Amino acid sequence: MQKINTFLMFEGQAEEAMNFYISLFEDSEVLSMTKYGPEGPGREGSIIHASFALKGQTYMCIDSHVKHGFTFTPAISLYVHCESEEEIETLCGKLLDGGSALMPLGEYGFSKKFAWVKDRFGVTWQLNLA
């Protein structure tokens, strides 16, 4: 077990987001998932707690049944070291589907190819061609 895990809080989209993320990376999987039943307090079928792995790195997520006045912020993002042009372009395209570019895919002084995107769930990703 990792000592420190990234923990993502959604409001009804945790399972969809988790399945989307594991579809992006080889060697990724859902490790565990517990859902609310009809007794609640969350919506039936939403995630009480789930763990998933992306390329061996473990993440956790939930569907909060409490509405909060905040969501994800670009102040923290998932940083991906891409190994090829194809990988960075594919990831960028998939993450931008329903999302937005904070820094479009391009050449920057610190990187020959980089993008900073917010996916359709509000999670931000920095993609860098290594």
From TrEMBL:
Q: Which residues form the PhnB-like domain?
A: 2-127
CDD domains per the UniProt record, alphabetical: PhnB_like
Task: Write out the transmembrane intervals.
Answer: none
Matching entries from Pfam families are given as:
3-dmu-9_3-mt
Which InterPro entries has this protein been placed in?
Answer: 3_dmu_93_MTrfase, Glyas_Bleomycin-R_OHBP_Dase, MTase_demethylubiq_bac, PhnB-like
Supply the name of the protein: VOC family protein
Q: Which organism is it from?
A: Paenibacillus agaridevorans
Its ancestry begins with:
Bacteria, Bacillati, Bacillota, Bacilli, Bacillales
